[in-house]
Design a protein that fits this description.
Strand order of the largest sheet: 2-3-4-1-5-8-7-6
Largest sheet: 8 strands, mixed
Structural class: alpha+beta
Radius of gyration: 14 Å
CATH architecture: Roll
Pfam family, one: Glyoxalase
Number of strands: 8
GO molecular function: dioxygenase activity; lyase activity
Order of helices and strands: EHEEEEHEEE
Shape: globular
CATH topology: 2,3-Dihydroxybiphenyl 1,2-Dioxygenase, domain 1
Number of helices: 2
CATH class: Alpha Beta
Distance between the termini: 15 Å
Protein name: Catechol 2,3-dioxygenase-like lactoylglutathione lyase family enzyme
Keywords: Dioxygenase, Lyase, Oxidoreductase
InterPro entries: Glyas_Bleomycin-R_OHBP_Dase, Glyas_Fos-R_dOase_dom, VOC_core
Length: 115
């Protein structure tokens, strides 16, 4: 299993203001689902940041997203370790397979792969 990207997720009700601010820093909007908006660097597309009002299908808003090449392997490893699964592995309507796990610092990590 390998990591493809790591992206901070900031819970926010100031999405429009964030859009304006991060565009000043050179980011471009690459995704907007209404409840989550993601911005990326045009020159380094894996450099991303997301702003989320609240998660559409999960009980909590994650702090970080980690995209991996094999989310099923990641889920098995995390589950077998005894870590707290916050949101069980599932396929989402917007094209990702994901789960949430709580890290040793209490942060909620959204682990995903694109389908």
């Amino acid at each position: 299993m390998s990591v493809r990207r790591v992206m901070p997720v900031i819970q926010s009700n100031a999405v429009e203001e964030s859009r304006e601010f991060y565009e000043l820093l050179g980011f471009e909007e690459v995704m907007d689902h209404g409840w989550i908006v993601t911005f990326a660097s045009p020159s380094t597309p894996a450099a991303q940041i997301s702003f989320m009002t609240s998660d559409k299908t999960a009980p909590v808003t994650p702090d970080v997203s980690v995209e991996v090449d094999d989310v099923d392997a990641a889920y098995a490893a995390v589950r077998d370790s005894g870590a707290e699964i916050v949101h069980d592995l599932r396929d989402e309507d917007w094209g990702v397979r994901r789960f949430f796990v709580r890290d040793p610092n209490g942060r909620v990590i959204n682990v995903l792969s694109h389908r």
